[in-house]
């Protein structure tokens, strides 16, 4: 395992922007336009190239968008009301980011520009799920049907075209879906103008404020295994501010980055309440001062600004501010509330499972003959399906992480719960394929104990999830949501089969 740390090609790296030299908090937080899809009518979204200013003092940046902005429009939907979206590929015929044909799935015989939309977290039939091989080219469109037969949650949509979705998403192809339901609407949570999406991402920006995507210069290991940016964007803006009143706000935070984990807190570390995760409300609010979000994870948090009247409060990732809240000083009467019980989230008992699967997360290091790969179960994407859960059945998947990284593992179509994480002896597994635990099982903390569609599989641990395969028969995918890993084989199909 020697060549894990691959070198980026230093000779072609352009001069990068230094965001610390920019005037902070001069742009208001952009709010993507709202696209109402809660009436059952057909809506149309065009993928297209445009230019967007990420900061007042920067020239516009070339981006690819859904509907003309990055992030794309916030789609508003109502649980139980099906929606139909026509996704039209109106992108140019050439990609403006480098396609690395050495990465599997990016073969030269495929058209350079191809796209397919996946609604992350949605329970849909496979034909509307955005299967990676179902990409289509500029000039074509696809009609996807979303039944919305699921609980209120913050979902998101993004590109999923085989071999290049890390580039398409990096170029700007992502947006939010807010699915509401009557139960949630009855709780009195902050709503309307005080229910705000915060979509986080990071990008490498050149001095001229253009997107730069690195390509490895090492021909023996031609892969940059995670891309991290120098610029943190909130709703597509660099260091924006938001004017708020001294009252409660609900923020739907999404990590839409390729590979970065966001470690968030407010300056001064006042507490806030976590009320939801990937698949909607938690059972009860959890009071925290920090939150960690892996790529593709969502968290709903309520910040009460009433004790911060007149202040400016930064939202901080690691040690650096990424945006600022400007709290007004007027008196307001806040009628919102955060009830002590949000909804019933019954824990799925282990005894409900009729099947157990062991899934390894592996690195394949043979830097001389092959590029490094990340694999699930030692298998590549195009090998035949090996996971065929029965529709309506419940399974426990044990994710054995044999790598040094945390991998955010996502399953399409289903929601699941995290059972526990437990350290195990990797050497013994490699030698004899037996699991010897080296410590006690750790149940998920309350903020991870709700319904999830992404689970952080920590290194050196077996992470167990329990999944009921409710929904539809057909072929779906599960994968690591670090997009560079996903592109280089850390994605596999699974097929839900009829009982
Ligand atoms: Cu966020 Cu396979 O997706
Ligand atoms: Cu990964």
Automatic annotation (TrEMBL):
* Pfam families (alphabetical): Cu-oxidase_2, Cu-oxidase_3
SUPFAM superfamilies cross-referenced by the UniProt entry: Cupredoxins
What InterPro entries does the record tag this protein with?
Cu-oxidase-like_N (IPR011707), Cu-oxidase_C (IPR011706), Cu-oxidase_fam (IPR045087), Cupredoxin (IPR008972)
Where the record annotates domain Plastocyanin-like, the positions are 116-182, 369-497
What is the name listed in the Swiss-Prot or TrEMBL entry for this protein? Answer: Multicopper oxidase domain-containing protein
Please name the source species: Dyella flava
């Amino acid at each position: 395992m020697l060549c894990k740390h691959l070198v980026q090609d230093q000779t072609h790296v352009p001069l990068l922007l230094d965001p610390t030299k920019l005037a902070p908090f001069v742009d208001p937080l952009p709010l993507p336009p709202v696209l109402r899809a809660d009436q059952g009518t057909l809506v149309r979204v065009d993928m297209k190239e445009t230019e967007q200013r990420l900061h007042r003092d920067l020239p516009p940046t070339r981006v690819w968008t859904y509907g003309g902005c990055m992030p794309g429009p916030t789609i508003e939907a109502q649980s139980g009301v099906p929606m139909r979206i026509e996704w039209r590929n109106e992108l140019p015929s050439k990609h403006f980011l480098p396609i690395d044909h050495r990465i599997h799935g990016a073969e030269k015989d495929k058209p350079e520009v191809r796209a397919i939309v996946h609604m992350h977290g949605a329970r849909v039939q496979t034909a509307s799920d955005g299967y990676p091989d179902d990409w289509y080219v500029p000039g074509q469109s696809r009609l996807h049907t979303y039944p919305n037969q699921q609980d209120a949650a913050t979902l998101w949509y993004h590109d999923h075209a085989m071999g290049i979705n890390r580039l398409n998403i990096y170029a700007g192809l992502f947006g939010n879906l807010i699915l509401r339901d009557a139960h949630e609407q009855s709780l009195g949570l902050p709503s309307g103008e005080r229910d705000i999406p915060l979509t986080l991402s990071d990008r490498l920006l050149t001095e001229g404020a253009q997107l730069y995507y690195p390509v490895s210069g090492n021909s023996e290991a031609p892969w940059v295994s995670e891309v991290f940016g120098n610029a943190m964007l909130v709703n597509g803006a660099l260091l924006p501010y938001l004017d708020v009143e001294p009252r409660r706000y609900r923020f739907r935070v999404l990590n839409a980055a390729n590979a970065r984990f966001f470690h968030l807190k407010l300056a001064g570390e006042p507490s806030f309440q976590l009320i939801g995760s990937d698949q909607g409300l938690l059972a009860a609010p959890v009071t925290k001062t920090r939150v960690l979000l892996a790529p593709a994870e969502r968290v709903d948090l309520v910040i009460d600004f009433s004790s911060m009247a007149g202040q400016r409060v930064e939202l901080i990732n690691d040690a650096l501010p990424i945006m600022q809240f400007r709290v007004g000083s007027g008196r307001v009467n806040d009628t919102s509330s955060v009830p002590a019980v949000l909804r019933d989230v019954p824990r799925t008992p282990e005894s409900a499972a009729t099947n157990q699967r062991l899934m390894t997360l592996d690195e394949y290091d043979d830097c001389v003959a092959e590029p490094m790969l990340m694999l699930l179960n030692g298998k590549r994407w195009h090998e035949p399906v090996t996971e065929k859960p029965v529709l309506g059945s419940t399974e426990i998947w044990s994710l054995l992480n044999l790598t040094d990284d945390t991998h955010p593992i996502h399953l399409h179509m289903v929601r699941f719960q995290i059972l526990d994480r437990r350290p195990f002896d990797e050497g013994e597994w490699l030698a004899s394929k037996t699991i010897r635990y080296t410590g006690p099982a750790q149940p998920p903390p309350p903020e991870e104990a709700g319904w999830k569609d992404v689970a952080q599989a920590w290194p050196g641990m077996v992470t167990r999830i329990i999944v009921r395969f409710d929904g539809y028969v057909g072929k779906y995918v599960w994968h690591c949501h670090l997009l560079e890993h996903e592109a280089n084989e850390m994605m596999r199909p699974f097929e839900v089969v009829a009982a």
